[in-house]
Specification:
191 residues; mainly alpha; 7 helices; globular
Length: 191
């Protein structure tokens, strides 16, 4: 490897180390529900989502309830994506008139996107409608990452407390990670 390759590796390592502490502190504030610089904008949205979904943000969950909420969310996500893929011919934003995916391809795609592996055995531009890609796959790219980070938050809480009695609330973690972590990242990347 030449000197430019080594310089690129060193720069990447330095940038990673410099970002680790502030990003870690910010994630800790999000996971514990402390104030962040986004609170004036996002706290009302967060509260509205809790009210609309019937979530009690102060009520923690034990490991069984947390896991049950995660599995229920994943199952609902799978069913929703599967139905979008199977019936895309009936849904809007399908200017090419693509037919719905076969049952095995819709199943495989839904499982892979809900589990955040995103394995594809097709060419999306030649198989999936705009709606399927936008409302189905892109939504799962976002929400499956949030669910994975919520599990990481629960695991961190379990290790910190030395007990698994209250791991937080899955729905609160999912909402806060989506609003305070992923949404700003997506916004900055879009710019």
């Amino acid at each position: 490897m030449n000197w430019q390759g080594w310089a690129e590796l060193a720069l990447t390592l330095v940038a990673t180390v410099l970002c680790a502490v502030p990003l870690g502190l910010y994630l800790a504030r999000v996971w514990t529900g402390e104030r962040t610089w986004l609170d004036p904008i996002l706290r009302p949205v967060e509260g509205g989502l809790y009210r609309a979904l019937g979530v009690e943000p102060g009520k923690g969950q034990n490991w069984l309830n947390y896991a049950g909420a995660l599995l229920a969310f994943s199952a609902a996500s799978f069913v929703g994506l599967y139905l979008i893929l199977r019936f895309q011919t009936l849904l809007p934003l399908n200017p090419q008139g693509f037919d719905g995916l076969s049952s095995h391809l819709a199943f495989n795609t839904a499982v892979s996107f809900v589990s955040n592996t995103n394995w594809q055995s097709y060419v999306p531009e030649q198989t999936l409608s705009t709606f399927s890609q936008m409302a189905g796959l892109t939504t799962q790219n976002f929400l499956s990452a949030a669910a994975g980070m919520a599990v990481a938050a629960a695991l961190a809480r379990a290790f910190a407390s030395h007990r698994g009695e209250s791991l937080g609330n899955f729905w609160v973690d999912l909402t806060r990670i989506s609003l305070y972590v992923l949404l700003p990242v997506v916004f900055v990347m879009a710019l």
